[in-house]
Design brief:
Helix content: 40-55%
Mean pLDDT: 95
CATH architecture of the largest domain: 3-Layer(aba) Sandwich
Shape: globular
Distance between the termini: 34 Å
Number of domains: 2
Radius of gyration: 21 Å
Bound molecules: NADP nicotinamide-adenine-dinucleotide phosphate
CATH topology of the largest domain: Rossmann fold
Order of helices and strands: EHEHEEHEHEEHEHHHHHHH
Number of strands: 8
CATH superfamily of the largest domain: NAD(P)-binding Rossmann-like Domain
Strand order of the largest sheet: 3-2-1-4-5-6-7-8
Largest sheet: 8 strands, mixed
Number of helices: 12
Strand content: 5-15%
Length: 283
């Protein structure tokens, strides 16, 4: 792999660039972004070796697309149009159905691998990039059979070097499950943050009283709306379904409170402690 082009060099693209460069020191990492200032920042942080433009991907051995999912849907067909016949294109988007659909009939569909590395933080942009972000994390690959076998092998070697576990899934199942374990958590955190801010306009008081429980539960509310709005838009039906179930649970909890049924509240929490066993080994 001589020339790797990153389209989007924020948290995910930048973190991938750092670790891929570490394992492939002779590779030239090229960065493509909307804003020149972002590329300058990526250069100064040594995430990329060179700035590039969209047309330059005609020289690419590998293109990694890490931009908001609406931009990925829009740009992916043109990216495939431009890359050489033996190039691999990987996307890292948090939704998979719309992205896979956007290129399902593309003549170079076999050059594309749909991936979702389940790793991240609430920070964004090149300064958020960290090395080791993907170590021990899961990478979901969708429709692997639609990618040329040689390119699958190339991608798997990259993910292995990053220390990732691989899971295969169809895009519909990915979007359904990820709505529960990722998208709902973000909405819940955003709305918890909103509830507290609406009530406690004086942010100093929030800060003084907030314990680590509040800070960890509301952490995801610092995430980028530019990245999350298109995710909710693309996964609207699944997200609404998770919200309905979540709102039912909140309403049920409120009803139990009104009824002074603290025995049932105890049981609800006790049963949910099972989450410790489920998450054992993840945290
Ligand atoms: P990020 O830190 O905000 O970086 C995204 C970068 O994309 C920005 O720096 C932006 O650069 C650039 N960009 C936006 N629109 C563009 C366009 N039309 N063309 C070229 N560049 C564009 O976001 P991220 O967290 O790395 O997320 C990137 C992708 O990874 C998303 O698809 C997301 O769903 C997925 N993902 C995120 C996480 C997570 O936890 N954050 C985890 C797994 C997967 P400019 O400043 O130049 O606009």
């Amino acid at each position: 792999m001589k020339n790797i082009y990153f389209i989007g060099i924020g948290l995910i693209g930048g973190s991938l660039a750092k670790d891929i460069k570490k394992h492939n020191p002779d590779t030239v990492i090229h960065g493509i972004s909307r804003k020149d200032a972002t590329l300058e920042q990526a250069l100064s942080l040594n995430l990329i070796d060179k700035k590039a433009t969209f047309d330059d991907i005609e020289q690419a051995d590998l293109v990694i697309v890490s931009i908001p999912v609406d931009a990925t849907v829009k740009l992916l067909p043109t990216i495939l149009d431009k890359v050489p016949d033996n190039a691999l294109v990987i996307d890292a988007g948090s939704t998979k159905e719309a992205i896979c659909k956007a290129v399902e009939n593309h003549p170079k569909r076999r050059n594309f691998l749909a991936a979702h590395p389940i790793a991240g933080t609430e920070h964004s942009g090149p300064s958020a990039a960290i090395s080791g972000l993907f170590e021990g994390k899961t990478n979901i690959i969708c429709e692997v059979e639609k990618t040329a076998f040689k390119l699958q092998e190339k991608a798997l070697e990259i993910f292995r070097n990053l220390g990732m576990r691989i899971r295969y899934m169809n895009p519909e199942a990915h979007d359904k499950h990820i709505a529960y374990v990722s998208h709902l958590s973000h909405i819940s955190s955003f709305m918890l943050g909103k509830t507290v801010i609406d009530k406690e306009r004086n942010e100093r008081d929030i800060f003084d009283m907030a314990g680590s429980g509040f800070a960890s539960t509301v952490r995801l509310a610092k995430s980028s709306p530019e990245m999350w709005t298109p995710i909710f838009k693309q996964n609207k039906d699944n997200v609404i379904e998770t919200l309905e179930e979540y709102i039912n649970n909140l309403s049920h909890f409120k009803d139990l409170m009104k009824q002074d049924n603290f025995e049932a509240i105890f049981d609800e929490m006790k049963n949910t402690n099972y989450i410790k066993e489920i998450l054992n080994g993840i945290n």
